[in-house]
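Extended Data, record VWA domain-containing protein
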Amino acid sequence: MQGGLAINLMHFARALRAAGLPVGPGKLLQAVETVEAVGIGNRADFYWALHAVFVNRRDQREVFDQAFHVFWRNPDILKRMMGLMLPTIRTESPDTQDPMSRRVADALRGTAPEAEGPEKSEIEVDAAFTVSAQERLQEKDFEKMSAAEMAEAKRMLARIALPVAEVTTRRHRPDPRGPRVDPRATLRRMLRSGSDLADLARRSRRTRPPPLVVLCDISGSMTRYSRMLLHFMHAVSNDRDRVHSFVFGTRLTNITRHLRHKDVDVALDAVSAAVADWSGGTRIGTALHAFNRTWARRVLGQGAVVLLITDGLDRDAGEGLATEAERLHKSCRRLVWLNPLLRWEGFAPKSSGIRALLPHVDDFRPVHNLNSLAGLADALNRDGPRRAESLRKWLKEAA
């Protein structure tokens, strides 16, 4: 292979890595070998050859596609890349630009060398009353994050703990001040001491966090959020026991076993290989029916708490959804619905799927940034009453 093309492939691999794809030296060598075998005479063959090497998961396709077309769009880009200059990308304001394009633009722009010029004088700024970058990141919508911000947010997600208020179980534990007398332990004490005087042993109920079940929507309308929420589910699965994770689009898939890998990249690769309906339609009623029929009795014991993560936009217009949601609600301790659409002030339950779900949930919360996930942790730690007061206004609007 000519040196110029190899150098360009190296810079393209660096751009993909900066945009969030797991690209290392091994994949770069595979790309060089693949391009040598396929050639560059046909653009489509060149595209799919690199796609086969660099893309491992469904959620990486959009990043690769946009990076490829931006990087290789100019016929003279090979010559310009010889000078280590990447194409300049026109970017709109961060709030109006497509988030995926922004991450690709940041990745491509980040590898270009800075223009030489006169040294800038150092300016000291008093930042005593400014908001830290970490605080801004906690309030920023997942959909508007750049590649660097998403990487930092994923690191912060790995540190999020999700405490759930402990519930009383049927089992007992020794407790000197317990309300109940333990007859067996009392008899054992009397036999050991050889005394006829009863030194009463007492016991109390054990407490334990209830099981946690997560049902996450991975349809096309949830694509920008499902990536980050999978990282959140992985962190929760590795932080506590008895966590059961499911994803659904047009069908339900159990990914509990895959998320138990300590390495998040290995876990998400396993999830990607197991799930066949990424970024497709949404059939919430069908997915809940499959869960209630196959998995409810296995994972909803001992007062499980269920997190339902979806925007409520159902392809089947809510057919059968109310019945399945009611059955799920009656089978668990609490049913918490997390909806990214709730971040909008003008949100109203107009969709048939949303109207079918609302009467059967205990809490209705937004999930669009790090602060919303932290608020979820606080809400679960407070074992509030079923059918929270805050839902009444939504139930009235849905009626």
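Summary. The chain has three domains: 3-79, 171-208, 212-398.
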